[in-house]
Amino acid sequence: MTQSVGRYQIQEQIGQGAMATVYRAYDPKIDRTLAIKALREEHCADEEYRARFLREANAAGVLSHPNIVTVYDVGEADKTPYIAMELLEGTPLDEAMKNDEPMELAQVLNIGIQLAEALDYAHNNGIVHRDIKPSNIILCQDGRTVKITDFGIAHLTSGNITHQTQMGEVLGTPQYMSPEQVLGKPVDARSDLFSVGVILYQLITGQKPFKGDTIATLLFQIATENPEAISKYRTDVPNDLRQTIDRLLKKQPDKRIQSGTVVEQKVQLDCALGASE
């Protein structure tokens, strides 16, 4: 990557994933520090991949929600597609969960409400994330606000890209995939909600609901087995909240909670009931 991308001045690399590299950058036109996410060089050679990256990034750019990272600009420099977006100061949720300790219920409920609101907004605007996982959720510096990143970009793993790329994504973050993703079936908004159920389960119990020793075992568990009851790990979780998470983790999409709005309402109710106890 050169020292500039278009008008943006690259300052330092701050992250890298299987698909893209993220840089801290500066926009001198409006005196703003931001993040530049650039497609990795090995993917830039694929015309279809580049085109889809830009198309999905533009789609994600229409989203404007307090719990979704803001996309400022999308472009291409020296045949490298990039996204200019909000630079988030905070901690990825996977880092906050590294000690495998259960989180206080009030904070879990707060995170659950924000995720449900953001996903409902995105789904109503025709965007399905397809890769909801703790590393794509930033816990901001205030310790309460969360923001979802990489909206729309995960669509790249759902099309007619190479089997190798798809399997690479599976191997990277399989614990949060829905059964329909594991089985290669069509994916819609309810897949994102399954992933939220996995995250809430882990936040509450300190345990991943599916934790096979091998990829094959793990994918089999996601597709066919129910996780251990939350009550095995924690006894202070209201029954309604346990039932909400159980419904999010249903194998069949038709049996899950069907929208982020319903998840939000149920979690808000759980929050209100908890406050009254």
Q: What is the CA-CA span between the terminal residues?
A: 55 Å
Order of helices and strands: EEEEHHEEEHHEEHHHHHH
Mean pLDDT: 86
* Assembly context of the chains: single chain
Percent of residues in beta strands: 15-25%
- Number of beta strands: 9
Main beta-sheet strand count, sense and barrel state: 6 strands, antiparallel
Integer-rounded radius of gyration = 19 Å
Count helical runs: 10
Strand order of the largest sheet: 1-2-3-4-6-5
What would you say about this model in short?
The protein is an alpha+beta fold.
Give an account of the 3D structure.
The chain has helices at 41-44, 47-60, 93-96, 105-124, 163-172, 179-182, 189-205, 215-224, 239-248, 260-276; strands spanning 4-5, 8-16, 20-27, 32-39, 71-77, 80-85, 90-92, 137-140, 146-148. By secondary structure, the chain is α+β, with helices and mostly antiparallel strands. A hairpin with a 5-residue loop joins strand 8 and strand 9 (146-148).
